[in-house]
Specification:
The complex is a heterodimer. Helices cover 58% and strands 6% of the residues of chain A. By secondary structure, chain A is mostly helical. In chain A, helix 1 packs across helix 2 (32-43) and helix 1 (15-25) crosses helix 3. The longest helix of chain A has 27 residues, at 81-107. The N and C termini of chain A lie far apart (34 Å). Chain B is mainly alpha-helical. Helix content of chain B is 73%, strand content 0%. The two termini of chain B are 37 Å apart. Chain B is elongated and about 60 Å long. The chains are: A mainly alpha, B mainly alpha. At the A-B interface, helix 2 and helix 3 of A face helix 2, helix 3 and helix 4 of B.
């Protein structure tokens, strides 16, 4: 059984924005604005500042991301090793769900 | 509404930690209603979420406080935040006893009144019990050290408003 705080699902309504952020940071550090641009390009969803920083604070509190020294007024973040593990686990779970969903659709 | 003003909705520690990034992200662009709602709900979340406080509280003096004291520091009205603490752990304990004891007493009184046939009054006493108890605890915590007149106003007027609202609610 997973302990509390080891899964993205524990973040409630922030779990999806947090997943987007982890995916965005998977190819290197980014600051908030670059993340919103990247997430919009990948998912079609634009995260508002309230959602973005709510999710960033939760990810930071769990040490799944960490801030880097500020560049001008913008502070970049990077994925930690723990964040990579959580992201991999979530993506594996989504892959399983996608496979099952497609196979069930094919059966109908 | 400008980004600067919206930023003021967030707790001071949050602004110190994320304020510059927030302003850089929001910029000077006009904000639509969905963005405004997102920012306001983010501000509410920043005040309430322990996760958010955990990432911001360490950068402010309240970091020296522990546990419940840190929470109290976060919720102090801004006009009191920069002052040295004027109430001790003992005061906080007394305040807690007033809140808990007051709530129990008001609930018991409300039950007695309802049994005696004063249904509306009993309902009102039960409903107003908790907020009134919280207000009565303030002289031991947040308004301790203020002049007596100021304490009377800060505690008495909200109690009158709660009682008035409860009275109106029981008549609806």
């Amino acid at each position: 059984m997973k302990k509390r705080g080891e899964s993205l699902a524990d973040l409630g309504r922030f779990s999806e924005p947090a997943l987007f952020i982890l995916i965005s940071l998977a190819d290197g550090p980014k600051h908030g604005y670059a993340m919103t641009q990247d997430i919009e390009a990948v998912s079609g969803q634009r995260l508002g500042p309230g959602t973005l920083y709510g999710a960033l604070a939760r990810l930071e509190a769990r040490k799944w991301i960490e801030p880097l020294p500020a560049d001008d007024r913008r502070r970049p973040y990077r994925l930690t090793a723990a964040g990579q593990r959580v992201l991999r686990a979530r993506l594996d779970s989504l892959r399983t769900m996608t496979r099952v969903g497609h196979s069930r659709l094919a059966d109908t | 509404m400008t980004a600067d003003r919206l930023l003021r909705l967030y707790p001071r520690a949050w602004r110190e930690r994320y304020g510059d990034e927030f302003l850089a992200l929001v910029g000077d662009r006009p904000l639509g209603l969905p963005q405004l709602i997102d920012i306001v709900s983010g501000a509410i979340d920043a005040h309430l979420s322990s996760d958010v406080r955990a990432t911001t509280v360490s950068e402010r003096p309240a970091a020296q406080a522990q546990g419940g004291e840190a929470v109290i520091e976060t919720w102090k009205p801004s006009c009191f935040r920069d002052r040295p603490a004027v109430f001790s752990k003992r005061d906080a304990l007394i305040g807690s006893v007033v809140v808990i004891g007051g709530s129990i007493l008001f609930s018991a009184l409300g039950i007695v009144l309802r049994r005696a046939g004063f249904d509306a009054l009993g309902e009102g006493v039960v409903s107003a019990g908790f907020p009134v108890s919280v207000l009565l605890s303030l002289p031991f915590t947040f308004v301790k050290g203020q002049p007596w007149k100021a304490q009377g106003v800060l505690v008495g007027i909200p109690i009158l408003i709660v009682v008035l609202l409860t009275y109106v609610a029981t008549k609806l």
